[in-house]
Amino acid sequence: MSTDSMSVSDQVMIELKNVNKWYGDFHVLKDINLTVNKGERIVICGPSGSGKSTMIRCLNRLEEHQSGDIIVSGTTLTNDLKHIETIRREVGMVFQHFNLFPHLTVLENCCLAPIWVRKTPRKEAEATAMKYLERVKIPEQAHKYPGQLSGGQQQRVAIARSLCMNPEVMLFDEPTSALDPEMIKEVLDVMIELAQEGITMLCVTHEMGFAKTVANRVIFMDGGQIIEENEPQEFFNNPQSDRTKLFLSQILNH
Amino acid sequence: MIINDKKLPDLPPPTSTSGPIGWLRNNLFDTPLNSILTLVIGYLLVTNLVPLIQWAFIDADWIGDSRDACTSGGACWVFVSVRLNQFLYGFYPESEYWRINTLFVLLGLLLAGMIYEKTPKRGWIALFTLVVFPVIAYFMLHGGSFGLPVVETHKWGGLTLTLVLALVGIVASLPIGVMLALGRRSHMPIVRSFCTIFIEVWRGVPLITILFMASVMLPLFAPEEIDLDKLVRALIGITLFQSAYMAEVIRAGLQAIPKGQYEAADAMGLSYWKKMGLIILPQALKIVIPGIVNTFIALFKDTSLVLIIGLFDLLAIVQSALADPKWLGYSTEGYVFVAFVFWVFCFAMSRYSQYLERKLHTGHGARQ
Ligand SMILES: Nc1ncnc2c1ncn2[C@@H]1O[C@H](COP(=O)(O)OP(=O)(O)OP(=O)(O)O)[C@@H](O)[C@H]1O
Ligand SMILES: [Mg+2]
């Protein structure tokens, strides 16, 4: 496999320093420290409720952290709307439930942000959108509405929609877990291709095959903490902490 | 093991389930209860509808210029036709009727252009109708410039006045309602409390009270220099009252949009106004089209309350005509006419909204 051909630069893309977050009294993220370099492909796993979604949603301010620093592509996340919008332009996100806009066609979904956020001329935005729709292998659906597509197709549109903004980082929050088994592969294939092109990726997923194929680091979270962090080979063959071992034995035995 | 790979041909449905007889059997006489209901309702229809049609059309008198023309014993539509100009134009000077006519022909053309799907540049027509047309309408109706003599608002009346009140109310209450609904869901406490209080106060007071206060009490308290036209005051009252209702209808739509839509829009870097304008409101408004049109229809009919502050809308002017000694005793015709005119407009709105709903439906399974 091509893990070596995918280069990781030493330029820092994302940095989390002592990040803490509470929901009311509930401490969801505890002292998270994480540095992600440009071109890294990171898979985050862990039991339900361990704070995986919360962590990646803090990276583009869908959730607000209460202490610590988050620096994305050189911009520190503060309450300053300018900073938040700068970061959101550079960070694409793919959701578990796709979150396509049902009142817009696939093509309009893809062109919306380039036109309204990046001020790309419509013609150009449409050309780019078609390019990405071809890459996720559904150019023929461009003029349909999301409600007319299958789950797997919708998720591929969602990926294309994020790519249209030319983001530096892509966040995936369980992109395949709302899909029927036969559709999971078509989405994973697109994601693997993306990874091989060197985009920085953070992906919350329980698809361990995917992790082994493309990740250069796997992070295991539990109880709001990062418990273990290693390259996939080591992580799967030689887990260090007991909680990791337990978790792996649970998901791999299925 | 059973293997069946021979494709069966498509057959037409059995005749007992299709065709007029099948339809009758399936829909009107399928159970004993349904058959009884069909018969009872059929009986009531025949016994009531037939005399009504007899009265309104067959025995009716249409032409003439006084009550002496009404001899057939049916409806005396002569009453309406003799007074038609007054019912339509109020006390507007007859020599200036063309201004109203031109205006409503123009409006009709604009609306037709917006409704007909193949019109080029529909967006611009809509913009023109919402922004430029009201200005033209003001100068045409009120006059005072471009060589048009002034017609003061107390001379406006009849259907013209009803339409002016309803259109201004509809066009103004929707955007104000949207703003109030957004404000009520805002994260800024001051904006949120202001909108909440505004909505609850206006919604909690009867429209009649508002109109009464606007026309009778306001002038008592307001300084003399501020001499707002009575019609303007009524318009403000109606608009604000209906925007409070509109706001609640729209808020229901906003609440029906899944959180994921907000998050996807946020994650793309759309600003608040772009997110609302491009993603949330188009979906929310679509969901609440029935509620919005319901409010429009209520507003349209509520305009007739202005008669208590001495404005002569369609209903008021017909009522005043009924007091004319020459026409005593024709109130049924008068009220049927008013009801019919109101119904035509409201029914048109209702049909258009159903058409819109169907057109904007973009496939099932789209909601998450
Ligand atoms: N808006 C919220 N308010 C209060 N508690 C929340 C909220 N969102 C999440 N939580 C709690 O925070 C914890 C972490 O949630 P999070 O969604 O990050 O978990 P997760 O690791 O993504 O789990 P899953 O695998 O089920 O998606 C959970 O215990 C959850 O109940
Ligand atoms: Mg999650």
The strand count of chain A comes to: 10
- Helical content of chain B stands at 55-70%
CATH superfamily of the domain at 158-327 in chain B: MetI-like
* Estimated helix fraction of chain A: 25-40%
Shape of chain B: globular
Number of helices of chain A: 9
Number of strands of chain B: 0
Shape of chain A: globular
Q: Number of DSSP helices of chain B?
A: 14
Given the helix and strand composition of chain A, which structural class is it? alpha/beta
Question: Which residues of chain B sit in consecutive blocks of at least 5 with pLDDT less than 50?
Answer: none
Structural class of chain B: mainly alpha
Largest sheet of chain B: none
Whole-angstrom Rg of chain A: 18 Å
Give the second-level CATH assignment, the architecture of the domain at 158-327 in chain B. Answer: Orthogonal Bundle
Query: What's the N-to-C terminus distance of chain A?
Result: 25 Å
Tell me the distance between the termini of chain B.
Answer: 41 Å
Overall description:
The complex is a heterodimer of chains A (254) and B (368). Chain A has 254 residues and is of the alpha/beta class. Chain A contains nine helices and ten strands. In chain A, α3 packs across α4 and α3 packs parallel to α5. The longest helix of chain A has 16 residues. Chain A is globular. The N terminus of chain A is likely disordered. Among the domains of chain B are: 60 residues; 170 residues, MetI-like (MetI-like fold). The model of chain B has no long low-confidence stretch (mean pLDDT 86). Chains A and B meet through α2, β6 and α3 of A and α10 and α11 of B. The complex binds adenosine-5'-triphosphate and magnesium ion. Magnesium ion (MG) binds next to α1 of chain A. Magnesium ion binds next to α1 of chain A.
